[in-house]
């Protein structure tokens, strides 16, 4: 009898904690009534928790940020949670023995994948990235042995570009522009399938980072033309099949490549209005002048909406040494610890650096004029 009284008193003490968790706006909450049916519809990343659990309470704001980023109508994934004190049947079936337990449910697969890493935002988004890349992010256009589209890796990259002409797509599986280009790129490869002098290829920069870094890849997709082992040109035109075919025909004609490697690197730098920064070269890039940096996650809806404006902002200061516009993908393995050190708690986070030192965080409207006004306030008058 006494034990039941203690249990009732203990449960009564949970009321404020349950209310606090119910304040979440973006996180989907599942119960025994809808868990099984909903989990089958999309990929899910689910937190199994108890409201009284201190670790759960500390994770709750980060989980809500993750949900705000990813729980959009057109998203293929849902960020959700299950309260094990009210829906114990679900947690028993999922063999939940501690709180919080985080599991990733892939559509079409019986067993979920348990997350065992640190529970910060960059690590969680990287985990999601890895799970999705293993599934639907590898579209059916991936080259097979019979495919005219050459899949490049560490073993065959150098030998492929060594002779002849090679047109390469440098991409990341999570990149929306890359996904939209994928079927067109395959059709381009089919169009030149029987031309022995031309190879249409692609390389996944999330798998082969060193190769992409060696070729100064700062954005996705990047389309580069190689001749006899030398990088000759970067394609920056429209990405329709007709435009790409015309470009290949033009480049493969009787023409001498007049662009030297040094000229190409200089041209490529000028072509990129926004620098893609990695932790290892971050301090070197921001050591002088003003640098405005977008710390982002590729899956973040707010980040995706900001991306075209950020590109426009970069173009406004392109070629001006006093101001650089950069971005850091916090889901990249090499950047995760760095983003934690920079105290990135939400995406996107916009920080302004001056001569290597962080001087301000931008929290205003993300329209182009507002961003320009913010930068100009920090510029010396003679540089306006």
Give the CA-based shape: globular
Gyration radius over CA: 25 Å
Helix fraction by DSSP (H/I, runs of at least 4): 25-40%
Spatial arrangement of strands, main beta sheet: 1-3-2-4-5
The helix tally amounts to: 15
Overall mean confidence score, pLDDT: 81
Keywords: Redox-active center, Repeat, Signal
Protein name: Thioredoxin domain-containing protein
Domain Thioredoxin: 9-130, 132-253, 255-380
Family: Belongs to the protein disulfide isomerase family.
What does this structure look like?
The protein is α/β, with parallel strands linked by helices and 384 residues long. 39% of the residues lie in helices and 21% in strands. It has 15 helices and 15 strands. The strands form 3 sheets. Strands 1-3-2-4-5 form a 5-stranded mixed β-sheet. Strands 6-8-7-9-10 form a 5-stranded mixed β-sheet, sandwiched between helices. A 5-stranded mixed β-sheet has the order 11-13-12-14-15, sandwiched between helices. The N and C termini lie far apart (78 Å). Mean pLDDT is 81; it is low at 1-22, 136-145 and 254-270.
């Amino acid at each position: 009898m006494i034990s039941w009284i203690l249990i009732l008193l203990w449960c009564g003490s949970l009321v404020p904690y349950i209310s606090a968790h119910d304040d979440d706006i973006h996180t989907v909450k599942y119960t025994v009534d809808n868990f099984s049916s909903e989990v089958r519809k999309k990929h899910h990343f689910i937190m199994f928790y108890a409201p009284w659990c201190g670790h759960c309470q500390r994770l709750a704001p980060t989980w809500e940020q993750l949900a705000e980023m990813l729980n959009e109508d057109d998203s293929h994934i849902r960020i959700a949670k299950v309260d094990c004190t009210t829906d114990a049947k679900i947690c028993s079936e999922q063999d939940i023995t501690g709180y919080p337990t985080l599991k990733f449910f892939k559509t079409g697969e019986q067993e979920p994948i348990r997350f065992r890493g640190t529970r910060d935002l960059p690590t969680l988004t990287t985990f999601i990235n890895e799970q999705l890349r293993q599934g639907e992010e590898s579209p059916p256009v991936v080259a097979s042995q019979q495919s005219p589209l050459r899949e490049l890796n560490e073993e065959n990259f150098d030998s492929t570009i060594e002779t002849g002409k090679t047109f390469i797509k440098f991409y990341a599986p999570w990149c929306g522009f890359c996904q939209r280009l994928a079927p067109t790129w395959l059709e381009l490869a089919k169009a030149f399938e029987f031309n022995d002098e031309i190879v249409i290829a692609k390389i996944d920069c999330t798998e082969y980072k060193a190769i992409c870094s060696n070729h100064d890849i700062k954005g996705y997709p990047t389309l580069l033309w190689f001749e006899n082992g030398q990088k000759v040109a970067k394609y920056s035109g429209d990405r329709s099949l007709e435009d790409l075919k015309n470009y290949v025909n033009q480049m493969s004609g009787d023409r001498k490549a007049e662009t030297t490697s040094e000229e190409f690197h200089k041209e490529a730098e000028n072509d990129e209005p926004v620098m893609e920064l990695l932790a290892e070269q971050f301090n070197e890039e921001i050591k002088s002048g003003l640098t405005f940096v977008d710390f982002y996650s590729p899956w973040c809806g707010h980040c995706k909406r900001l991306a075209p404006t950020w590109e426009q902002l970069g173009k406004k200061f392109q070629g001006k040494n006093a101001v650089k516009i950069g971005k850091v993908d916090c889901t990249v393995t090499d950047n995760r610890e760095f983003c934690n050190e920079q105290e990135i708690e939400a995406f996107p986070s916009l920080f302004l650096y001056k001569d290597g030192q962080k001087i301000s965080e931008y929290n205003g409207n993300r329209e182009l004029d507002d961003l320009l006004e913010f930068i100009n306030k920090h510029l010396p008058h003679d540089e306006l």
